[in-house]
Design brief:
Layout: H1 19-34, H2 49-59, E1 71-76, H3 79-97, H4 104-110, H5 121-124, E2 127-134, E3 136-138, E4 144-146, H6 150-167, E5 171-172, H7 182-187, E6 193-202, H8 218-221
Antiparallel strand pairs: 1-2, 2-6, 3-4, 5-6
Helix pairs in contact: 2-6
Organism: Streptosporangium roseum (strain ATCC 12428 / DSM 43021 / JCM 3005 / KCTC 9067 / NCIMB 10171 / NRRL 2505 / NI 9100)
Pfam family, one: Nitroreductase
Domain Nitroreductase: 35-203
Length: 223
């Protein structure tokens, strides 16, 4: 049936698979993603910038509220900038871990991960990527454009980004030092952007270890 539109539309005909292939493809993707782990022990081996760019391209395909795409991925390879980010992050983390800023409940929740204020991996990795959420848009004349569903949109984009890195055999960690305002200054970002997640990106170290975690079963994840 022909439809009338006030804005440009194009045909969309996604690939359809036989049911057996649908299940196979879905299971293979699940098993691939189930092998993904957050890593805190990295190699300093170089990683092609193109891999990071491909991950950002993938993130950029994510759905967003009103298709406003309220994200900016800042890619950092410069060693001096990575050092500055590590030093600033550790100042905040020492306040969290040694300065008593973490509540007892929060400490208890983190205990099995054995995390601490040392963030040496921020200098070890060849790349840092900081995702900034655009709180609002800015027109060429300086006026603001309201953005809708910013947290939801940026969160989905970051999920795509992580999946793309894993698909290329790279590791990362969703690092969210609190507060994160220092990233705005170091990265030279405008006032309409706020730091959302800091991603260290590289190969897992040859002797990397991760906590022995068990993901909750389908019966708990789905109602």
């Amino acid at each position: 049936m022909a439809r009338e539109h006030s804005h440009p539309f194009i045909p969309y005909r996604p690939v359809r698979y036989p049911e057996a292939e649908m299940v196979t493809r879905g299971r293979e993707f699940y098993e691939h993603m189930d092998r993904r782990r957050s890593v805190r022990f990295f190699s300093d081996e170089p990683v092609p910038r193109e891999c990071v760019e491909l991950a950002v391209r993938t993130a950029n395909t994510a759905p967003s509220g009103a298709h406003q795409q309220p994200w900016k991925f800042v890619v950092i390879g410069d060693p001096e900038t990575r050092r500055r980010i590590r030093e600033a992050a550790e100042i905040e983390e020492r306040q969290n871990y040694e300065g008593g800023r973490l509540t007892p409940e929060w400490r208890s929740a983190l205990a099995h991960l054995e995390t601490g204020s040392d963030k040496g991996y921020l200098e070890t990795v060849p790349w840092l990527v900081v995702c900034f959420a655009e709180k609002y848009g800015v027109r060429p004349d300086g006026t603001r454009v309201k953005h809708y569903y910013v947290n939801e949109s940026v969160g989905i984009a970051c999920g795509f980004f992580i999946a793309a890195l894993h698909a290329m055999g790279l590791s990362t960690l969703t690092h969210t030092p609190n507060p994160m305002a220092f990233l705005t200054g170091i990265c030279g970002r405008p006032a309409n952007e706020r730091p959302y997640i800091l991603f260290p990106i590289g190969y897992a170290a040859a002797d990397a270890e991760v906590p022995d975690l068990v993901r909750k079963p389908l019966s708990e994840a789905m109602a």
